[in-house]
Design goal:
There is one protein chain. By secondary structure, this protein is of the alpha/beta class. About 40% of the residues lie in helices and about 15% in strands. It contains ten helices and twelve strands. Bound molecules: NADP nicotinamide-adenine-dinucleotide phosphate. The site of NADP nicotinamide-adenine-dinucleotide phosphate has 28 residues, from α1 and β4.
Length: about 300
């Protein structure tokens, strides 16, 4: 039976990975208390205790704006820890599955980004995630790095839940309409990851190792995403009206790329795996949410 170790067990993706893999092998799930990625000793101990065949790293320093003022911690967690995980995985003959971000790109391309496009992060978070990718690649061995974008799920900190809350609290919301991306559900990522594991024979792992883009199909802006959330939500609520604004009117500590839509062609060619379009993934998440439990104002 395959032994899976899921790191970041309490995050959006970590939660979905645990569910998606539970009848596929033996799943050990560690949150920050059991495996702190800022502490190399904690990583070594976690791998030794779990002795996994597959390590799935869904843990990361994901506070994009806060990373600007905590670059050292963000680099330890997002940059250095993935390299240590890769070394440990190689030593234990395990596969490392790691998740990275669309924010490794600078957003200047008008078409969707492919894996070979030059990286140039605009913010500290993106730079630390890129360092993590490079450290894994340097170690080599069996690894998949799945770059994804704009993750949402029925739990955790994400744009979907923030909009459902603010949409009730406020009469008007001003949302950025000049950043393009693909909202991607944690559920779709977890299912796609499982399919890839199911389809890939062990003797192909080293050959197929590399970076793959993995996001929901389609694209929108944050403003379009917010509009779809209110339109598709079945709750009979007077939602806030939405006004689209340029990024320049919403200053944030970390600059974001104008276009971070990822091309998923490589994923579909190599593994024949496709994620749903972001709107149907959103509908699925809304169905899974009990909107009656949201605070009303
Ligand atoms: N969220 C997005 O929009 C997005 C977009 C592109 C790529 N990604 C990437 O996708 C992956 C999954 O993201 P997500 O949205 O599921 O993230 P998330 O919901 O923020 O979860 C991240 C998890 O990492 C844990 N963590 C933070 N620092 C840690 C540390 N020092 N040691 C161990 N665990 C630590 C957090 O633990 P606590 O619960 O204790 O805080 C949290 O449970 C990450 O690699 C992220 O960089 C995310």
């Amino acid at each position: 039976m395959t032994r899976f170790l899921v790191l970041g067990a309490n995050g959006q993706l970590g939660t979905e990975l645990q569910h998606a893999l539970q009848d596929f092998g033996h799943v050990t799930s560690y949150g920050r208390a059991a495996c702190d990625l800022s502490d190399p000793d904690s990583i070594h101990t976690a791998i030794q205790n779990a002795h996994p065949d597959v390590v799935l790293n869904a843990a990361a320093y994901t506070a994009v704006d806060r990373a600007e003022s905590e670059p050292d911690l963000a680099m330890r967690v997002n940059g250095e820890a993935p390299g240590i995980l890769a070394e440990q995985a190689k030593t234990h003959n395990a596969l490392l599955i790691h998740y990275s971000t669309d924010y490794v790109f600078d957003g200047t391309k008008s078409e969707p980004w492919v894996e070979e496009d030059p990286t140039q992060p605009l913010n500290v978070y993106g730079a630390t995630k890129l360092a993590g990718e490079r450290n894994i690649q340097q170690v080599g061995g069996a690894f998949f790095i799945f770059r994804t974008s704009w993750i949402f799920s029925p739990r955790g900190n994400n744009f979907l839940l923030t909009m459902l809350r603010l949409g009730q609290e406020r009469e008007e919301l001003r949302i950025v309409n000049d950043q393009r991306g693909a909202p991607t559900s944690a559920l779709a990522l977890a299912i796609a990851t499982r399919r890839i594991l199911e389809k890939t024979p062990k003797n192909q792992l080293n050959k197929l190792a590399g970076i793959y883009h993995m996001s929901c199909a389609g694209e929108t802006t944050w403003c379009g995403f917010a509009q779809a959330i209110f339109q598709k939500s079945r709750a009979e609520r007077p939602w806030a009206s939405i006004i689209g604004i340029p990024s320049s009117e919403y200053p944030a500590p970390a600059p974001r790329p104008a276009n971070s839509v990822l091309s998923n062609s490589k994923l579909s060619e190599v593994f024949e795996v496709k994620l749903p379009d972001w709107e149907s993934a959103l509908e699925t998440s809304l169905r899974r949410l009990d909107l009656n439990t949201l605070p009303s104002v």
